[in-house]
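I am writing to request your help with a piece of structural work I have in hand. I set the record out below, with my sincere thanks for your time.
___
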Amino acid sequence: MSKWLVSIADMLKIFILFMVCTLIFYIGLQMIHKEYEQLHRYDQPQGKVVKVFQPDESTWLDRLSIFFRLGE
């Protein structure tokens, strides 16, 4: 009977440890979410900004040709 009590106590310890670790992980995720929720992603960039993409004047046939060639 004592083996059963020891095994139940061990399982209870593991369960409590699992719950504590899960709670710490959940609180950490909430903190990260709050931090990034306050970040304004669509603000105008500040400082020296370089435009990366400049669309060229291509016809829709050129674009269709590139689409079929690249297989996208």
DSSP finds two helices and no strands in the chain. Residues 65 and 71 are 10 Å apart (CA to CA). The mean pLDDT is 87.
